[in-house]
């Protein structure tokens, strides 16, 4: 399929679609109970749909699922974080990641032109982001903290001990 066979629309995925897309592309699937609040607090989100299943140019079909997404969160003015850029594996290598990024950066340029937009790049996408003006933060160092991640690691370690 060419990129003209896809439509990118502003909107929020269902919690299940969000969870499933993250999981399919190898991102950590979030706890489902936290997803609705997270999505509701998005600054903006864009979804990719196959044009052939659309009822018109702006309405996905009733049973249609997004095949890609990208999201920004933050204060809407000075600080934003780009996250959740994901394209279903069956639809990768068609320029959809670039189209999502273009939609997100165009939105920021129009609605929050003074924003500092940050991201954490997965290894597979590290060549994508510089095409949209993102630069390495060196000499700064990126860091993160995630209690949920520590709990997951602890649970896995306990399972390994139980098997020994």
UniProtKB/TrEMBL annotation:
Residues 22-151 form the N-acetyltransferase domain. One of its GO terms (biological process) is UDP-N-acetylglucosamine biosynthetic process. Keywords: Acyltransferase, Transferase. GO terms for molecular function: acyltransferase activity, transferring groups other than amino-acyl groups. It holds the Pfam family Acetyltransf_10. This is Acyl-CoA N-acyltransferase. It comes from Ophiobolus disseminans.
């Amino acid at each position: 399929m060419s990129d003209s066979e896809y439509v990118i629309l502003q909107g929020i995925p269902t919690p299940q679609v969000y969870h499933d897309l993250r999981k399919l592309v190898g991102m950590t699937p979030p706890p489902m109970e936290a997803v609705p609040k997270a999505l509701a607090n998005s600054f903006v989100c864009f979804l990719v749909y196959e044009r052939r299943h659309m009822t018109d140019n702006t309405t996905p079909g009733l049973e249609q699922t997004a095949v890609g997404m990208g999201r920004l969160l933050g204060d809407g003015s000075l600080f934003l974080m780009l996250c959740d850029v994901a394209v279903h594996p069956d639809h990768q290598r068609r320029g959809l990641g670039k189209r999502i990024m273009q939609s997100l950066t165009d939105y920021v340029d129009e609605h929050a032109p003074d924003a500092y937009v940050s991201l954490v790049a997965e290894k597979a996408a590290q060549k994508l982001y510089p095409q949209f003006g993102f630069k390495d933060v060196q000499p700064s160092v990126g860091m993160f903290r995630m209690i949920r991640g520590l709990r997951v690691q602890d649970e896995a370690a306990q399972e390994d001990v139980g098997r020994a």
